[in-house]
């Protein structure tokens, strides 16, 4: 059944196994420290492999900060956490020029965005000019101060969080800026077994902390060169022409949902942009690669489609009034598009 999606020589397969095994070990390490959030961990690794950024939404205390912190200790690179507040300034992110009176010159002092992994905590609590500075760095991979442009690290990933509970005093991100995020991940509460595992891990960490033991440290952090090599393997993963057409049809369906049923007519104001097509292609490849395969299946595309599309479509007032959600609309569209 899966053979029709796989058209690659067997010899190529053996070249991928070493890095795939390393990422499987990394995934197991993350899962041992962040319990009950397997989808979030998968999406973080996919974003790392696709050179993209994550917008994560969930209630407080669901290990969003912990997840990116654990990943930062597992990959060769540095980490910085930014707490977004209403009084934050763009220079607090990008850096600023400092005047040196001894020689009458200005020296640029780099800001937190020059780290490899950046956590933008509660990104919707800062005003628009601060959000724009962050999103410009994400999109352009560079920061311009005055007349000088500074490149950001080659390994650069932003995970921005939002709290869906408290909306008072926040600055919602515009839809055009949300499009710069590779995926929008919803983080649910863990189940009963996950809650029990959290208690066990917390007790173990409290004992280690009391003994001054090191937390979060893996046996051997993954080198930046290995991440770059894995990205190349993901880009080379086989994706059949039929599945390329399937991706295109999913994105086009968000722009003309009426073609898939009169009940969907008028449900969307705007559909997904071409960035969604690119993101579906890259993330489906990464999803298949992390699963240990060297080819993409329709299930890979369907698995990551909601995270790719939910922040790139805008429901109409009528759809919202009827209780429709982006996820339910995406599910209906995917269910009505023929699978190759």
Notes on the protein architecture:
This protein has 340 residues and is an alpha/beta fold. The chain folds into two domains: 1-33 and 237-340, Helicase, Ruva Protein, domain 3; 53-206, P-loop containing nucleotide triphosphate hydrolases (Rossmann fold). Helix content is 47%, strand content 15%. Strands 2-5-8-1-9 form a five-stranded parallel β-sheet. A two-stranded antiparallel sheet has the order 3-4. Helix 1 crosses helix 3, helix 2 packs across helix 10 (274-290) and helix 11 (298-309) runs antiparallel to helix 13 (326-336). The termini are close together.
Determine and state the CATH class of the largest domain.
Answer: Alpha Beta
Percent in strands: 15-25%
Principal-axis shape equals globular
Q: Return the string of H and E elements.
A: HHEHEHEEEHEEEHEHHHEHHEHH
Task: Write the SSE topology.
Layout: H1 10-33, H2 38-50, E1 54-58, H3 64-74, E2 79-83, H4 91-94, E3 95-100, E4 105-110, E5 117-121, H5 128-140, E6 142-145, E7 148-151, E8 157-162, H6 175-178, E9 183-187, H7 192-210, H8 224-236, H9 241-255, E10 268-270, H10 274-290, H11 298-309, E11 314-315, H12 317-321, H13 326-336
Parallel strand pairs: 1-8, 1-9, 2-5, 5-8
Antiparallel strand pairs: 3-4, 6-7, 10-11
Helix pairs in contact: 1-2, 1-3, 2-10, 8-10, 9-10, 10-11, 11-13
Please give a quick description of this structure.
The chain has helices at 10-33, 38-50, 64-74, 91-94, 128-140, 175-178, 192-210, 224-236, 241-255, 274-290, 298-309, 317-321, 326-336, and strands at 54-58, 79-83, 95-100, 105-110, 117-121, 142-145, 148-151, 157-162, 183-187, 268-270, 314-315.
